[in-house]
Amino acid sequence: MRHLIAALSASIFAAPAFAALPVDGALNFQPAATRIAERAHEFHNVLLWVITFIVALVTVLLIWVMVRYNRAANKTPRRFSHNTTVEVIWTVVPALILVGIASLSFPNLYYQNVTPNLGEIAATSKSLLASGKTAQHLAYTKNNFPDAAEKGFVNIKVQGNQWNWTYSYPDITDDTGAAIEFVSNGIHKGRPGDKEIYEANTGRTDFDAQPVNLAVDYPMVVPAGRYVRYYIAAADVIHSFTIPSFSIKTDAVPGRLNEGWFLVEEPGVYYGQCSELCGIDHAYMPIEVRVVPQAQFDRWAELMKAGDFDAAATSVMNIAGLETQTKFASNN
Ligand SMILES: [Cu+2]
């Protein structure tokens, strides 16, 4: 019990401020980092009550039948076999419960699966403000982010490989017109020599601080508070790009381009893993997303364009908080 309480409080109070990753003994989901995840969690919490009510009702009915109608308590059972009223109720009520659940789940599915139209979001927000509908505007900006919409998408192509990920940023090109592209390999821990290999390859000394099977050598980097649209495919077999704290999971299929989006406001490190059995090293192709303030992202992009991948990766090892963004920019 003490262990459970410790684990619970660890997950609630001591969760690392800037990292979203599984915690030993924790319950429930990782904290939501996107609106998509918030909505998924809200939906889950509603469903939990529905399920609890149904299980309790069925349990009570079962116990009632066992006590009231066992052979000793009910010596001469009546001989009817149908009751139209009861049958209508137990058909219609579950159907209505399902309709209720669907009315909550479909909007969430749509929100997650359909890449938003940024022009429309910016225009809708402006027209709501212009007509003085502040309450509607507040409700609208809960699910839509007009400031980010003005800036357009950050586009990233994700490719699943046996067994790592390739990230390209088609809009960020160097002098020759080539897009930034790099392979992101999981950091192996636990075998003799892993630390030395890591330090030799990356020139970094943070091996011991890296979480097992989650950290990578060159992470995906995105700016905070921006709409990120990712296109995803695979080179060999099916992989699945999954980040629990974003509530996103998109299959990477050879020969087929899938699409998804997310927007993270809080800078930090967010971890995920491939979620489609893809071969012997399936467990060793983690996903690490570093969400950084725009100024830090721009500097990372400059270093990547210059071809200095190690300096770029090092530049995002410490993530500037949003409040330090201006200071960071002036230091730059
Ligand atoms: Cu995979």
Please characterize this protein's 3D structure.
- With 332 residues, the chain is α/β, with parallel strands linked by helices.
- The chain has four domains: 25 residues, no CATH class; 79 residues, Helix Hairpins, CATH 1.10.287.90; 31 residues; 179 residues, Sandwich (Immunoglobulin-like), CATH 2.60.40.420.
- 42% of the residues lie in helices and 20% in strands.
- Helix 2 packs antiparallel against helix 3 and helix 8 runs antiparallel to helix 9.
- The longest helix is centred in the first third of the chain and has 34 residues.
- The protein is globular, with a radius of gyration of 25 Å.
- The N terminus and C terminus are likely disordered.
- The protein binds copper (II) ion (CU).
- The site of copper (II) ion has 7 residues, from loops.
What ligands does this structure carry? copper (II) ion
H and E order = HEHHHHHEEEHEEEEEEEHHH
> What value does the Rg take, in angstroms?
25 Å
Helix count, DSSP H or I runs of 4 or more residues = 10
Query: What is the CATH topology descriptor of the largest domain?
Result: Immunoglobulin-like
List segments where confidence is low: pLDDT < 50 over at least 5 consecutive residues. Answer: 1-17, 324-332
CATH class of the largest domain: Mainly Beta
In terms of DSSP E residues, the strand content is 15-25%
Biggest pleated sheet: 6 strands, mixed
Q: How many β-strand runs?
A: 11
Number of domains: 4
